[in-house]
């Protein structure tokens, strides 16, 4: 019997990894432009952003959606 695989595209990716990759890709300024939350635009840091995102479901969902959009596998090519 094989182990069932998760259909969740974020399975195994921590919020910290996801956020770090977005910051590397976009930078804080552009990230704040995509997702208008204060922790990205006012003295941003990974630690303060993680603290906010872990407590704020709507903001975390926006970050996850941006990550999925920008890291979508190129399977349609």
UniProtKB/TrEMBL annotation:
InterPro entries: DNA-binding_VF530-like (IPR018668), SAP_dom_sf (IPR036361). It comes from the Bacteria. This is Transporter. GO terms for molecular function: DNA binding. It holds the Pfam family VF530.
């Amino acid at each position: 019997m094989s182990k069932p695989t998760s259909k969740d595209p974020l399975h195994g990716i921590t919020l910290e990894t996801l956020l770090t990759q977005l910051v590397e890709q976009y930078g804080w300024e552009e990230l704040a432009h995509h997702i208008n939350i204060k922790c990205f635009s006012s003295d941003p840091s990974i630690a303060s952003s993680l603290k906010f995102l872990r407590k704020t479901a709507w903001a975390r969902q926006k970050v996850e959606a941006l990550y999925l959009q920008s890291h979508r596998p190129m399977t349609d090519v």
